[in-house]
Every structure is written in structure tokens, then in C-alpha cells.
Amino acid sequence: MRQLFVWFQAARPRTLPASLAPLIVGNWLAYLEDQLQSGLLLASLLCALALQIFVNYANDYFDALTGVDTDARVGPQRATQSGLVTHGQMRAAMVLSALAASLAGLYIVVFGSLWLLPVGIASLIAAYLYSGGPRPLASLGLGEITVFLFFGVVAVVGSYFMHTQLMSKAAWLAAVLVGLPVCAIMLVNNIRDISTDTAAGKKTLPVRIGRQNSVVLYSAALLLPLALTINQLNVVVWLSLWIATVFVAVWLISQLLKRQAQALNPLLGWTSFYSLWLAVLSCFYFTI
Length: 288
Fold this sequence. Notes:
This is 1,4-dihydroxy-2-naphthoate octaprenyltransferase. One of its GO terms (cellular component) is plasma membrane. The structure is a single chain. The protein is mostly helical and 288 residues long. The protein has one domain (2-287). It has 12 helices and no strands. The chain has helices at 2-10, 16-32, 38-65, 79-82, 87-111, 116-129, 143-164, 169-192, 194-200, 205-227, 236-258, 265-287.
């Protein structure tokens, strides 16, 4: 039982709602057009979860392998670096999660669209290259952009396309509404780790631009989606939800300004659930 808990923690459950958020919106847009297929819905959710777990396991493995994770890290304990699992066990877990994502993706290709095959392959490669390879994307300051592309644009537009074989302005807008808050999760993580990443030579975006500019980006990632939906403020229910969400966003920003190092760990979970809430809110926005 304890070992299962170790693997559960290594999967970083605080980040998992963010992997579902874009799928919720993309599938909802298909539902509004009476195009939703339950098999594809379930396959897309499984694929997204498995891919996110693969990303997290790979990050755990490669950060331990390259010395980025040490006893000095300020974030939650990492399974490989702390010795709770061996390098071989983590590699096996990476393979299993990648296989699960691939099988779910294959179902989507067969019953959805063949055009999604290269998208799926690119997603798996990007998930690996985020932490692995000779020049990991995270160390090049490209982590947030990669997250926006694959957990925003690809996830939303792709999940809508797999049902309808079409693209729409609504899907592209939804990709921005959901993709930006998911980027905010990555920003919190990397802002927290600025000192240890700097020491390890890992040049994430916050390391490159500094904490102050990173806070500005975080604020924009939370608030810009709300700014893009002001055209529905004449609807009383939407106005109420919109104002409440603005207050939540401002509170999250205030917590980022006040907290340092380990004290930022809860903000990861809060920002993740904020991204999930914005996904639900986006579904309502496109319905009214």
C-alpha cells in the first residue's frame, strides 16, 4: 500500500486536473453540435491523463539523473532522487504510461481521424523532450510554451476535431481560455524552484526572466481569459460568475506575491483547480 502511495505522489496529482481541463472544453464544444461520441470522449480523457503522468514520471527520472533534483530541493519529495523507487522502476513506469497513452491515442486515430496520428506522435515526443534528451525543453525556457501548445491548442482543438472533423473559431478561443491557466501551473512550479534550478544550471523561463516578470506572466495567464469573455457580461449569471472568478484570480496572484519556496506548494494545487474551474466556466460561456 505504501508503494502505491509513492507512485501516486510521483504522478503529481495536483497537476492532473489541468490535463483534463482542455479535454472537457473540446468535448463540450462537440457536444453542443451534437457530435459527441462517448468512446472518443473516454479515450481522450485516458490519453491526456496517461500523457500527463508520463511527463511527470519522466521529469522525476531525468531531474534525478542529471542532478537537478537534490536534497536541497524546495518542492515535494521526488521518488527517484530520494531513492523511494529505482531508476529502472521509474523507466518501467514511464514505458507503461506512454503505452497507455499510445493505446488510447490509437483508438482515437482509428475511430476519430487519421489526421490526429502525427499530432499524437508529436505529443508523445514533446512529452519526452520536456525533461529528456540532450537539450530538454524545460531547460531552454520553453516549458510554458510547450504546455500551451499541447495542453491548450492541441488538446482543445484536437478533441473538438476528433468528433467533428472540423475546426472552429470557438475551439481556437477555447484553447486560449484553457491553455493560459495551465501555463500558470508551470509558472508556479518554476518560480518556486528558481534558486535550485539556477544552481543546477536548469534555465527555465522564470530563471531567465526573473521572479518579478514571471509573476506578471502568471497574472496575465489567470486574467487574460476573463478579459476575452467580457462580451457576455450582459448576462446576469455570467456576470456573477465572472466577478467571483476575478476575485479568485486576484487572491491567487496575492498568494504568489507573498509566498516563497516551499510555501508555494499549495498554490500549485490551487492554480490547477483554477484551470479546471475555468474549463467549466468556458463550457458555460460557449453555451449561453
